[in-house]
Amino acid sequence: MRSFQRGILALGLLTVPLVFAPAASADLLKATGFAVGSEKVSLVSPSFASRDVNAGVFNLSPPSPGVLAYCIEIFQSINFGTLYSDYTTTSLASDGQITAVRKGEIAQLFHGFYAPSLTSSTKTAAFQLALWEILYETGPTLNVDGGDLVNRGVNYANTPNTSVGVISQADTWLAGLGAFSSDVSGFIIYRSPDHQDQIRVPEPATWALVFAGLTTLAFIARRRKRA
Question: b/e map of 188-220 (b: 16 or more CB within 10 Å)?
Answer without folding.
Answer: bbbbbeebbbbbbbbbeebbeeeeeeeeeeeee
